[in-house]
Design brief:
With about 500 residues, this protein is α/β, with parallel strands linked by helices. Helices cover about 30% and strands about 20% of the residues.
């Protein structure tokens, strides 16, 4: 009897232990963040790695690259009778009702796509994070999706593009980025002829074209499905990417106002809780107040702030001119222009995500590569004035003024009299946005003794040269004489170590 009693006791202890372990496991699996904005606001919306990284690169690439005409809105505009894209499409491929946008899918073969080469190029360009548009407005998914039949694994190139890039970019010790433009894909004004051209929907509904198709598969690409089904797909696809590729930053490209708050809160909670499981910080971006700032940071497409801010923010800009995706007539920005832009953004407490436009076959054009490598060469010398820095007392000085903050700002051309400041510990960096000439005087008028009080200059140098730098510091500012040999045709950096 004693033996039986002892055995029952052991069994009881084991059961209690198992129940305790199950309860402990259950507690560990409970989400840290609930799907409401108050709970989600407790998450630190700006990751420290992002504040340090400052510069990243991603790509607009997919089926929309195939026509290589006009710009990344070709898929929409080809359906608008009378537009240049429509005329080109009819001449080249036939009427859209005969050759629809979905007919480009087999032509997207990505035969020269090499994720390792992309990741290596981004790294050489000085990027600290990199990625791709996971899904543009056109309803095409660049990953292996079980939700969206229009994806790069099941159709087109039959490659898991996001998956390959995630692996290659992380192997380069960069953070991984995916951007989502899907929200605009939903046709909210179906069968209402007065709203065909409403730009809140990417594809205009037209009963004479595939955009009105009720085919169970084709209708998904054109967003011609019930809103509730669309919302479920939107959230489901995001979960797929989070679960399969664990992006460090998810960027949203406008029109999130079309997605109900319930789904946005569910997504945010899912992403944040997943980051807790993986013990990392993630970032969400929004545009024009479409998500609370308490859970995301604001993005300025082709724009930025005109002053130093307390809140960290993002600018997305493209190396190309005329389109985000590849076209046969694509223009190009110079490395000098992008370097000046980066310095201006970082001095005001922002980061830059630069877009590249690969060809339909997956090759990044040589001229774009050259610009990236020039940026990388500049950062190899001057990166300490960018990476890991924080804002100084003021962001800068000089004659070139940015009048307003926001998106889609006019281009500014900076000069050697325009200075941008950053700092790291007791070191201040003055980034001069142009070369003033050899043995020329540079005046840092914000760097006055009155402003800096008891601080003293311990050393002063110019990055990229071993030349001794002559300077004078007085009540009107810090006055520097450049070396008698040119340091750089573009911006150069004065490093001022204080004590």
């Amino acid at each position: 009897m004693k033996k039986i009693g002892f055995t029952l006791f052991i069994v009881s202890v084991l059961l209690m232990s198992c129940n305790s372990e199950k309860k402990s496991a259950t507690l560990k699996e409970e989400p840290v963040y609930e799907a409401n904005w108050d709970s989600l606001a407790k998450y630190e919306e700006t990751a420290e790695w992002f504040k340090d990284a400052k510069f990243g690169i991603y790509a607009h690439w997919g089926v929309l690259s195939v026509p290589s005409y006009a710009n990344d809105w070709y898929p929409r505009n080809m359906h608008i009778v009378g537009s240049n894209e429509y005329k080109y499409h009819v001449k080249t491929y036939g009427e859209p009702k005969e050759f629809g946008y979905h007919d480009f899918v087999p032509m997207f073969k990505a035969e020269k796509f090499n994720a390792e080469q992309w990741a290596s190029l981004f790294k050489k360009a000085g990027a600290k994070f990199g990625g791709i548009v996971a899904e543009h407005h056109d309803g095409w998914s660049n990953w292996k999706s079980s939700i969206n039949p229009w994806n790069s694994f099941e159709k087109g190139p039959h490659k898991d593009i996001v998956g390959q890039l995630a692996k290659a970019i992380k192997a380069q010790n960069m953070k991984f980025v995916t951007s989502f433009h899907k929200a605009r894909n939903l046709q909210l004004f179906q069968k209402d002829s007065t709203k065909w051209l409403d730009d809140t929907s990417y594809f205009p509904y037209n009963p004479e074209m595939p955009t009105s198709s009720e085919d169970s598969e084709i209708s998904i690409m054109y967003g011609n499905i019930s809103p509730e089904k669309f919302y479920q797909n939107w959230f489901g696809e995001l979960k797929e990417v989070i679960d399969s590729y664990s992006p460090d930053l998810i960027y949203f490209d406008s029109k999130l106002t079309k997605i109900p708050d319930t789904y946005k809160k569910e997504f945010t909670a899912y992403y944040f809780n997943n980051s807790v499981k993986e013990n990392k910080q993630v970032v969400i971006t929004h545009k024009e107040g479409e998500l609370p700032k308490s859970v995301s940071i604001e993005d300025f497409e082709k724009g930025r702030m005109n002053k130093k801010t307390e809140e960290f923010w993002l600018t997305d800009e493209t190396v190309s001119v005329g389109s985000w995706s590849y076209t046969n007539t694509l223009g190009l920005k110079s490395a000098n222009e992008i370097i000046d832009l980066l310095a201006d953004i970082v001095s005001k407490n922002g980061a830059l995500m630069l877009n590249v436009s690969p060809k339909p076959d997956g090759e990044i054009p040589v001229d774009q590569q050259e610009v990236l490598l020039q940026i990388g060469a500049w950062l190899a010398v001057n990166g300490e004035a960018i990476y890991g820095t924080r804002t100084w007392e003021i962001f800068g000085e000089g004659p070139t003024k940015q009048e307003k903050s926001g998106m889609f700002l006019d281009k500014l051309t900076y000069t050697a009299k325009d200075i941008r400041y950053t700092k790291k510990g007791n070191t201040v960096y003055a980034i001069v946005l142009g070369w003033p000439g050899e043995s020329a005087k540079v005046d840092l008028t914000s760097f006055t003794k009155e402003e800096l009080g008891s601080l003293k200059i311990q050393s002063l140098s110019i990055l990229g040269t071993d030349s001794k730098i002559d300077y004078n510091w007085d009540d009107s500012g810090l006055h520097i004489i450049t070396p008698n040999k040119k340091v750089d045709d573009r911006a150069f950096v004065i490093k001022i170590e204080m004590k």
